[in-house]
Amino acid sequence: QVQLVESGGGLVQPGGSLRLSCAASGNSFSINVLGWYRQAPGKQRDLVASITDFGRVNYADSVKGRFTISRDNAKNTVYLQMDSLKPEDTAVYYCNAKRVLPPIFDYWGQGTQVTVSS
What we know:
By secondary structure, this protein is mostly beta strands. It is 0% helix and 55% strand.
């Protein structure tokens, strides 16, 4: 079992910044990939960014150059620094933890709301 607790969401003006955090507990040593997904009303949940236990990162095209994902293995925490925010970034952001080798697992956090509006 892995528990994920997100924090850092809120309301920000266009062009502003926010930093999301996700703390993992439980069998967090066995996580291979930590990622952030987002879901806007009426839309599917999409990948925003991910980082492997080796530090390999992947970003959605829509956030490249604006968002930065990082991982503190000592604290079992993953961060998403979001800069130059746009109204279209408004969504519920979910933390995700995956293990891609057996025993495979896939856990989600509860989500945190990010609203970009003037």
